[in-house]
């Protein structure tokens, strides 16, 4: 909910996921063109086919180890690797809090299906090409562009998707589109499927958190921010929590009564 509100406030949208605001700009040649154009300008500063296996962070020198064994050094490291593959990289030199935060991020496993038709047959029937599906392998489909219909298999249906034999899969997905749009959908010129959830360098679709994980994230941030307020810098300021009562020297050590401690609880 908060993420949605933040998104709406940043984009100035009027209403939930207003397509006029969110879907009004597209890269004509396909979004991969953005990365390719940037790559042209960066030239040989980009190393392709060089998987990173380990990262060591230190204040003076960071090391990035490729799976080939080659070591690159740098003053700083920026990780732009998706949450799943990033977990496969051994990272040292950063706080446990940061690593725990990384491990709370989950990739939403998904697969994509694309059917190419010679024209946008759905428009002839007065339809916009969007369908949401509750009991299928596909979670839904949408019109990607002229004659092209795309669909996504959501995380909770990936099991069925992966269990379907490859040679049945394309037809099974087309059948689902036919159920929604009729026989005009039965004969695409071409179909494509791609299991992003199992692709090793992606391992998913977008980053997601399981219920409760985002709250732990917030609690971790609060712990980090609040603690320094309560410490006593150079012994001058009192901590806000009550001090332990001094031990009564007249009481034998074994007879001291302790208040039972409530077990330390993780934040919900
Ligand atoms: C099917 C699908 C549909 C999507 N639809 C939309 C959409 O409609 N709108 C939208 O905004 N977003 C969409 N997304 C999400 C969008 O594609 C991603 O959010 C975006 O590509 C993330 O960009 P990125 O640069 O962070 O990561 P990526 O584009 O995933 O790039 C990460 C790079 O890191 C590399 N890498 C991984 N592991 C290593 C390693 N160990 N060493 C070195 N390199 C490594 C990978 O090879 C890859 O090149 C979609 C994603 C999928 C899969």
Question: Overview of this structure, please?
Answer:
By secondary structure, the protein is of the alpha+beta class. The protein has a domain at 111-194: Polyamine Oxidase, Chain A, domain 2 (Alpha-Beta Complex). The chain is built from 9 helices and 11 strands. The protein has helices spanning 2-11, 19-22, 32-42, 83-88, 96-104, 121-124, 158-163, 166-181, 213-230; strands spanning 52-56, 62-66, 71-74, 90-92, 106-107, 111-116, 131-132, 140-145, 148-153, 190-194, 207-208. The strands form 3 sheets. Strands 7-8-9-6-10 form a 5-stranded antiparallel beta sheet, covered by helices on one side. Strand 7 (131-132) and strand 8 (140-145) form a beta hairpin. The longest helix has 18 residues, at 213-230. Flavin-adenine dinucleotide (FAD) binds next to loops.
Q: What characteristic shape results from the CA principal axes?
A: globular
In CATH terms, what is the fold-level topology of the domain at 111-194? Polyamine Oxidase, Chain A, domain 2
The fraction of residues assigned to DSSP E strands is: 15-25%
What would CATH call the class of the domain at 111-194?
Alpha Beta
Q: Which structural class do the helices and strands define?
A: alpha+beta
- CATH second-level architecture of the domain at 111-194: Alpha-Beta Complex
Number of E-type strands: 11
């Amino acid at each position: 909910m908060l993420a949605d509100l933040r998104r709406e406030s940043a984009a100035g949208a009027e209403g939930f996921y207003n397509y006029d605001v969110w879907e009004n700009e597209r890269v004509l040649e396909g979004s991969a063109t953005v990365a390719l154009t940037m790559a042209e300008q960066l030239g040989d500063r980009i190393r392709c086919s060089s998987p990173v296996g380990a990262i060591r962070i230190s204040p003076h020198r960071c090391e990035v180890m490729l799976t080939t064994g080659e070591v690159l050094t740098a003053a700083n490291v920026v990780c732009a690797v998706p949450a799943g593959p990033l977990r496969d990289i051994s990272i040292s030199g950063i706080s446990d809090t940061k690593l725990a935060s990384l491990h709370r991020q989950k990739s939403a496993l998904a697969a994509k299906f694309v059917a190419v038709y010679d024209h946008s047959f759905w428009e002839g029937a007065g339809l916009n090409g969007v369908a949401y599906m509750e009991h299928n392998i596909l979670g839904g489909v949408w019109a990607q562009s002229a004659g092209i219909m795309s669909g996504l298999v959501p995380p909770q249906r990936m099991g069925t998707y992966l269990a379907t034999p490859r040679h049945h899969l394309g037809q099974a997905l087309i059948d689902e589109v036919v159920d929604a749009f009729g026989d005009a959908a039965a004969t695409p010129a071409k179909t494509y499927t791609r299991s992003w959830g199992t692709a090793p360098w992606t391992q998913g679709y977008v980053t997601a958190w399981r219920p409760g994980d985002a709250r732990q994230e917030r609690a971790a941030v609060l712990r980090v921010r609040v603690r320094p307020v309560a410490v006593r810098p150079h012994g001058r300021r009192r901590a806000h929590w009550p001090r332990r009562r001094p031990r009564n020297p007249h009481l034998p050590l074994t007879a001291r009564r302790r208040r039972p401690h409530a077990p330390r609880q993780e934040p919900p």
